[in-house]
Every structure is written in C-alpha cells, then in structure tokens.
Design goal:
This protein is of the alpha+beta class. The longest helix has 13 residues. It starts with 6 loop residues before the first strand and ends in a 9-residue tail after the last strand.
Length: 266
C-alpha cells in the first residue's frame, strides 16, 4: 500500500468533520457529549486514530458503511469496528490480500474484530444519535446512518453521484430500486447527504434522483448510456438527472452497471 498520503479534515458543522484521505475516499467524525463515532476509516494510508484524537478525547465507536477496503482498512488503527454481517465475507476476502497483510506487518498493526450493526440499531453519542438503516445494492450489507438531530444522512457508497452497481455481489437493479423505495421516507428525516467520496453536502433529493435513474435502467431507457472502463473490465454507465433548484457538490451523475444484471422494475 502507498503511504504518506495526505488526510484533509474539514468541519462541516459543529462536531461533524469530513476526513478526505488523498481524495480517494472520505470518512466522517461525529462528536457528541459523551462519545464520538468514526464513519468509515478509508484506506489506512494515514494514522486516523491520531487525527481523531487531535479533535476529541471521547471514547470512539467505529462504523463501516460497507465491506469495501477503501472504507474499512483504516480500522487497523482502532480497537473496535461495526459492520453489517452480510458484508463480513466481502471484508474478510479483502483483508486476506497479501499486500494488505504486508502493510499490517510493516506497521505492526492488526485489524480489530468486527461487531455487528443492523437496521434498528441506534448509536447514542450523548445529545446526538446515529440511527441505522439498511440499503443493500452496492454491497449486500450496505448501511446508512442518520444523524437525527442535524438531519444529515451518511450514505457510504450506497447513494452517491457515481454509483458502482457493476461489481460481483451487487444486487440486481430491480432489487436495488425496491430497496431505495423502502427507505425513501428518509428524505423527510434528513436535509443533506454526506457520502463516501464527498467533498461537501448534497441535497437529500439525490436519494430520489438516484432511484429514478435506476428505474430508467430497469425500463430500458438506456439510449444515452456509454461504455465505462474500470479495473474489472467494461461496464455501462447511465446518466441520471438531479433537480435544477437544489444544491449538489457535482454536476454529473451516473450509475455504472452490467446489462445482464438488469431485470424489470416490476
């Protein structure tokens, strides 16, 4: 693994910090009156615990939104971590990577065991609460965290402007549409989204706009789709629209997918 990559920290509102690791992945720190929570620990390029300790000395709970390495490899600097059990096989596969094992050995680090986190759980930070909701799609065990008091929804990679649905283990598009519909009520509970590769806030309407884009794919409205090349080969990418009168951190929005993973939306 590469080392000496910069960690950029930005306060989004009092007690909520965006942590951008080398512009490759984003984690968050939420500080309550009694505890703090780290949401995603990124690639582990930097000693995230030291950075967190520069901002708070409260006990820390670590939550991973899903089991991809750019969201949990930094767990190695902490003593605890929570992950949805459906993503445990995925996370374990990545932890067995030889290069990552060499990184741990060189740093004299070890990954903490995963505790379980599921929908219905709520993390009490003292005056602030993070409520857990499941959104399978990008991975089987993807979760969202609602910071109730600030009306902020942390979405990991499950809701963002460049959604990867072309990987092994991604849900069929129709199933993802259904999952998005089930949690669409959250647009009444949150005003803003912070996702796993963000540099700033997105309006909560990104959630509904993403669902609309996934429905377009299921209906075969893919005439404007173009090839998407990534490390696993070639997929397709489908542009979707967001609302013109809302605030988003970027102007382009796409869903990447494999044509054989699309079924009718029902």
């Amino acid at each position: 693994m590469e080392e000496k990559k910069e960690l950029y920290i930005r306060q989004m509102c009092p007690g909520v910090y965006l942590m951008d690791e080398a512009h490759e992945a984003t984690g968050y720190l939420v500080i309550g009156n009694e505890r703090a929570c780290v949401i995603d620990t990124m690639n582990g390029y930097t000693d995230l615990k030291r950075a967190v300790r520069s901002l708070t000395d409260l006990p820390v709970t670590v939550v991973n939104t899903h089991g991809h390495p750019d969201h949990f490899f930094g767990n190695a600097y902490f003593d605890n971590a929570l992950l949805h059990p459906k993503d445990l096989p995925l996370a374990r596969m990545f932890m067995e990577d030889v290069e990552f094992q060499q990184f741990l050995a060189a740093k004299r680090l070890a990954m903490p065991p995963f505790g379980e986190i599921r929908e219905g759980d709520s993390i009490d930070l003292g005056g602030r609460h993070l409520d857990v909701y499941e959104l399978p799609g990008h991975t089987p065990g993807g979760i969202l965290l609602l910071l109730r008091e600030e009306r902020i929804l942390f979405t990991g990679d499950s809701v963002n402007h460049h959604l990867w649905m072309q990987l092994d283990g991604c849900a069929p598009m129709a199933a993802f549409v259904q999952s998005l519909g089930r949690i669409l009520f959250l647009e009444k509970e949150a005003d803003r989204i912070l996702h796993g590769h963000a540099r700033g806030f997105d309006d909560i309407s990104l959630l509904r706009c993403l669902k609309n884009g996934a429905e377009e794919i299921c209906r075969g409205e893919t005439g404007r789709d173009t090839p998407y090349h990534y490390f696993g080969g070639e997929a397709r990418q489908h542009p979707f629209s967001c609302l013109p009168d809302r605030s988003y951190q970027q102007a382009d929005h796409v869903i990447c997918y494999m044509p054989d993973n699309v079924t009718a939306a029902g």
